Amino acid sequence: MGAITISGLGKSFGTVEVLKDVSLDIADGEFLTLLGPSGCGKSTLLRIIAGLERQTAGSIAIDGRAIDGLPAKARNIAMVFQSYALYPHLTAARNIALPLTMRRMTPWQRLPLVGSLLPGTRGLRAAIGRDVAGVAAALDIAHLLDRKPGQLSGGQKQRVALARAMVRQPAAFLLDEPLSNLDAKLRVQMRAELTDLHRRLATTMIYVTHDQAEAMTMSDRVAVLMGGDLLQVGPPRRIYDDPETLQVAEFVGSPKINVLPGRMGRPGLVDCLGARLPLGVPGGPDVALRVAVRPEALVLARPDAADCLRGRVRHIENLGSDCMVHADVEGAADPVVVRLDPEAGGRLARGTPIALEIPPHRALVFDAEGKRLRPDAATARLRRAGA
Amino acid sequence: MNRQQSLTVALLRHAVLLAGAVIMLAPFVWMISTSLKPPNEIFSTDLSLLPRKWFALENYGKAFTKVPLLRYLLNGVIVTAGIFAAQLLVSLPCAYAMAKLRFRGREVMFTLVLVGLMIPAQVPAIPRYVMLYQVGLLDSYAALILPFVVSAFGIFLMRQFFRTVPDDLVHAARLDGCGEFEILWRIMLPLAFPAMVAFAIISVVAHWNDFFWPLVVVQTGDLATPPLGTLFFRNEEAGSDFGPLMAGTVVITAPLVLLFLGAQRRFIEGMTLTGMKG
Ligand SMILES: Nc1ncnc2c1ncn2[C@@H]1O[C@H](COP(=O)(O)OP(=O)(O)O)[C@@H](O)[C@H]1O
Ligand SMILES: [Mg+2]
């Protein structure tokens, strides 16, 4: 129905390479989020999938059938644009009806005046009207059908744009930052509605966003795209807990993950600002490393505990449900952020000396280039070296 | 003090505008006034806007009977409408392609349009005349219409407007199943309506009032456009009978003034070209 296979896709505008060798398999009915900062090529990738832009390398297939030569209208893919892209001179009803009018009626039947005299036109128009009413009811916009886009609020335009995409029952939906123009409250509500809609339609959706909260809450899988490179693809939980590169670790998660300078110590140990972590990652002695720890992974230790990061509280943000403590740690360039429960956070004040413990299994170690180092890879390599 | 000052400034401003308006309008007022007077009053030394003896019926009657004024008006309508329709047919697709499609040579093409914009109509007149002579089209409606079918100005104006239409709208239409022609017809045209009205007025005014080209290619009076018609009028009347002549010019100018008044709002909308937002 709507399994999309992207293989070796590349795109350059002149000499600027916007997408580099992107390969991705999207299962039928999957909700896949393309996550990445602004300008990383997300929209370009969507436009290529939709057939609005030609790739300079690679191939795309739907259900195993290559679609590279097909024009946009022959691909059976619908797209919702960030700007909604509703036709301003047509009512909501006629906006939603246009894809059906173009597909079901002959050019003669579409002609004004003449068309309505041709046999079959009346019946077709009625059927289209019923389909439009159907999606409008499903999206709760039946009462808005007579309005023009200029008379609709952002959220309402969003729904009309969704209806226009849904009405022709495409093989896949492409959504390009559909929520970014809505206010914060509506965004959270629409997030839930979109997830629900996906469950009901069970159609493949490729959802583009730079907002990691959307990516984490809505997707079956997240694909992280940065600078035109697909860095990692996986379920949201894995992207968060088990990032392949420091870039991914830093992009996902709010507040940002803490990155600390580290160094290989005795075999199997990583020294990190006074903490010694038994991580068993590969590398010779004294190799520079980077140790990343999520704010919620750090543990507040007793002030006299050994093997800890030491510093002073610089700033406390009490968010009600939890409490973000920013601390200046000796040897760290940026303040280290720790998430505590409000009760523990409440006992601290500006300037309080604190000690922070890094639970070894929550520490992520990266090499100087930002590539993840894993303990098991280390043992494998050691074994290979030994053989 | 301050209020008084601003009042003085306002008065001054209005005085200047008023003077400008009087200078602009005076010839027209004089034309209308003359068209209502008998010959002896036209050349009398005392200035008066209203005639002492109303001579309107005689002047206008003469204007319509001495020369085929209605025929000239009809010619004017045929020629200006023909030119404008053909200009739309050429410039809309051309402007759309230059605004929204990517192809090699697009920038060069646009530069050529700009160059075309700067060449006055008199420059290519002789080659055009020779070409029309060679295909045997001189002294016909075709001779009056064909040279203006491709309007660099029309292409330029419509392209500038189409560029303000967001790309996403075109993309959405493509996904909805529209071909390029349908995008132009269903999406771009309705949005560009104000620009089209502005173009219509500029084109119609220019070609309704054009004297040079009809003078070059028209020999028989039957094909004369209104401005050329007044020339025939003068020749026939030995240039002395100003009452009917002015009556004729009033009749010729009136359609344009009415057209402008009718489309004024749209015209200003189109000329300011605020385009679309979002
Ligand atoms: N038509 C184009 N011509 C040249 N460069 C483009 C074009 N479209 C996009 N780009 C460039 O490609 C990069 C990626 O753009 P885009 O896909 O829109 O990013 P995103 O949607 O992730 O913010 C940007 O640097 C942008 O400047
Ligand atoms: Mg984008």
Describe the structure.
The complex is a heterodimer of chains A (387) and B (278). In chain A, 30% of the residues lie in helices and 30% in strands. Chain A is of the alpha+beta class. Chain A folds into 2 domains: 4-241, Rossmann fold; 256-384, Beta Barrel (OB fold (Dihydrolipoamide Acetyltransferase, E2P)). In chain A, a hairpin with a 4-residue loop joins strand 20 (364-367) and strand 21 (372-373). In chain A, helix 2 (92-104) packs parallel to helix 6 (154-166). The mean pLDDT of chain A is 91. Chain B has 2 domains: 1-34; 62-273, MetI-like fold (Orthogonal Bundle). Helices cover 74% and strands 0% of the residues of chain B. Chain B contains 14 helices and no strands. In chain B, helix 3 (56-66) packs across helix 14 (242-272). Chain B is globular, with a radius of gyration of 24 Å. Chain B starts with a helix and ends in a 6-residue tail after the last helix. The chains are: A alpha+beta (387), B mainly alpha (278).
Annotate the secondary structure layout.
The complex is a heterodimer of chains A (387) and B (278).
Chain A: E1 4-13, E2 16-26, E3 31-35, H1 42-50, E4 57-62, E5 65-66, E6 77-80, H2 92-104, H3 107-110, H4 114-117, H5 121-138, H6 154-166, E7 172-176, H7 184-201, E8 204-209, H8 212-218, E9 221-226, E10 229-234, H9 236-241, H10 246-251, E11 258-264, E12 269-272, E13 275-278, E14 288-293, E15 299-301, E16 309-318, E17 323-329, E18 336-340, H11 342-346, E19 353-357, E20 364-367, E21 372-373, H12 375-386
Parallel strand pairs in A: 3-8, 3-9, 6-7, 7-8
Antiparallel strand pairs in A: 1-2, 1-4, 4-5, 9-10, 11-12, 11-14, 12-13, 14-20, 15-19, 16-17, 16-19, 17-18, 20-21
Helix pairs in contact in A: 2-5, 2-6
Chain B: H1 2-35, H2 39-42, H3 56-66, H4 69-100, H5 106-118, H6 125-134, H7 141-145, H8 152-163, H9 167-175, H10 180-191, H11 193-209, H12 212-217, H13 226-236, H14 242-272
Residues 42-43, 176-177 of chain A line the site of magnesium ion.
